[in-house]
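lol ok so funny story. i was supposed to be doing the assay writeup but got distracted and ended up predicting the structure for this chain instead. priorities right. anyway since i did it might as well share w the group, maybe its usefull for someone
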Amino acid sequence: MDANGIDFMVLSCAQPCIQGIADPKAAAAMSITVNNQLAASISNNTERFGAFASLAMQNATAAALELKRTVEELGFLGALVNDYQQSGSDGLTPLYYDQQEYDVFWQMVSDLNVPIYFHPRVDIAPTLDFQYAHAPFLKGPAQEFAATLSTHILGLCVNGVFDRFPNLKIIVGHMGERIPSDLVRIDTQLLRQLELGMPMKQNVTTYFRKNIYETTSGNFATDLLNFHIGEIGLDRIMYSIDYPFVGIPDGTVWIDSLNATLNEEDLNSLKRGLAIKVLRLNDKMLKLRCRQYYAEGDNSLLMEDVLDNVLL
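and the output, tada:
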């Protein structure tokens, strides 16, 4: 991290993690174990590391309660879900979080004011066989990941999740899984679905400008970045690497090259400013400093003194 100029890194469980465990009891138990272990692993250096919770999504209420525990008790910054949740006795039933039975979960997310990061996962076997038997080279990040996850994100849009929860914050990696590259066609074609009962009240472009953030993870394309800035705004885009799937030095070379493309203020927003805002890192650091000061018995410090030490 130091060699590549990285001050802070958010850690999470690699795909498919809990989303690959179909049994709800086993998934719930493993999510607690993973979250506790992750919290313990960063407990001695929370000024450099944060965490996203792993959640079992078979039961929306249970997922909401585990999210609440990890945020309020463990200090996590939100959660990361690896696309859909496997379920059923054979593990072949996918659960998508754009259905109204997940409203209790999204209400908790909104109440906690934390983001949920949507990350791709390897598809279940029947989907892989049906979609990619003819061209198995397209499995994974070249096509499968973006095709599957973008459908889930668009499902959140068309099924009215952002209308029911207007303050919801979702993060999507890999430059938005291609969605912002095709917003004109998506918005235009979805207009035809209104007369068929589609509950979405706005359009996908609006949700990307109000509710959805994208990161640059694993997609270090300057021309694409500039196009997306024009489509959704730089204030919706955060720098990310996708380590360990992508090398940290690769990201460093690219982000440093943007000095010739972005001004200092915009580059700072991409590198750190927006992430600090979305993840509420200044709030997190303030709480850490307060705990440290009180633990050291120095209760005379003014809040302003604490703030001077934690603003990033």
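The domain at 2-284 is CATH 3.20.20.140 (TIM Barrel). The first helix runs from residue 24 to 42.
back to the writeup now i swear
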